[in-house]
Amino acid sequence: MELDTLKDAFDRVVKRQKLSSFRSQEIVDQVGHEIEQALAKIKAINDPLSPVHLKSILSELKLKLNTVGPLNLLEGLQKERNINLSKYPKLLEKSFSPDISKAYRDVDFDFHLVNQIVANHFYQQGLFDLGDCLIDEAGEPEAIAIRSHFLEMYQVLEALKVKNLGPALNWITLNREKLNQNGSMLELKLHRLQFVEIVKKGTKADALSYARTHLAPFASLHMNEFQKLVVCIIWVGKLDSCPHAELMAPTHWDEFTQEIIKQFCSLVGQSYWSPLSVAIAAGIKGLPTLLKLANVMAAKRQEWQEMKQLPVPVELGKELQFHSIFVCPVSRDQGSEENPPMLMPCQHVLCNQSIMKLSKNTSRTFKCPYCPTEASAAQCRQLHF
Description:
This protein is mostly helical. It has 4 domains: 3-95; 115-268, no CATH class; 275-306, no CATH class; 323-384, Herpes Virus-1 (2-Layer Sandwich). 59% of the residues lie in helices and 4% in strands. The chain has helices at residues 3-44, 51-68, 70-95, 111-124, 128-138, 147-161, 166-174, 176-181, 186-201, 204-215, 223-231, 251-267, 275-299, 352-358, and strands spanning 341-343, 349-351, 365-367, 374-376, 381-382. A hairpin with a 5-residue loop joins β1 and β2 (349-351). One of its GO terms (cellular component) is nucleus. Keywords: Cytoplasm, Metal-binding, Zinc, Zinc-finger. A zinc finger (RING-Gid-type) spans 328-371.
């Protein structure tokens, strides 16, 4: 199931569709042009009832339309488009397994935790009615604790849509100390947005007054940014010529909105990406490997459901790696605080339990599984995640 391959095939279908539509419109326009020219000639005839003139004009129109051959051209374009469209569903059927339940394994779920994760996802997406309904039906009243935080966040976001920075400023002011500890520049970015709006719509005096009151406190730490903003005052009324016109870009509002969301989530102990969306993304990416493994296990009559650990790694990409993971090449166990990775003198790494077994509980030296070097357990150094 190569998603990149499917995307490329989809893009080809879209490209063919657009080209077909464009060429079809060209043909229709050409036919319309020829008809309009014929009508203009008919109107220009001194004796419009003369059958000779009318016949010659219509004969000429018929000849031109036959030369263009609009029906054949349109049928050809439709045939090419249908060929591409028919190939894409076949590729989908080939790429996607119709029965993904083969990769399913009986896992003990903490349904209390799952309900909380789903409810939090709804709240984080602003779907408060759905979150409330789930909590009510699942009987998870404690999950509602996070609701007020996300409700406050969406009130701020709704205000930002109409460029009202008041609610955002109130929230930043209340949480200034925590935001500063996170190294956030939200307050400066907020005042920059407000200042730019004044520069766009107000006067030089208004802009200067706002800069003195709200931007000056940031000058010592952000002098370069402060200087660029102050220079904009000179160009009030002629901002097209301002050397720092990039400060006026509307994308700064979108960036500020995303930063608000990230900081909101951080302060309430939530991830910017909801755990539910991360789990689904990981499942989609790992599903091809799991399906292949399930098929192999079925062919070998091995019990897929009874496996405690997957025999092969599932590559999820760096975007889904949130902490270091080490799998011992000898035992295939994943490193943990109880079984940490140990660096040998030869720079190879094994888990502590593997080293203990190889060294017979530290009493002997042992040979590295990957090179001729011999070492003892005492010579191995623990690595930290």
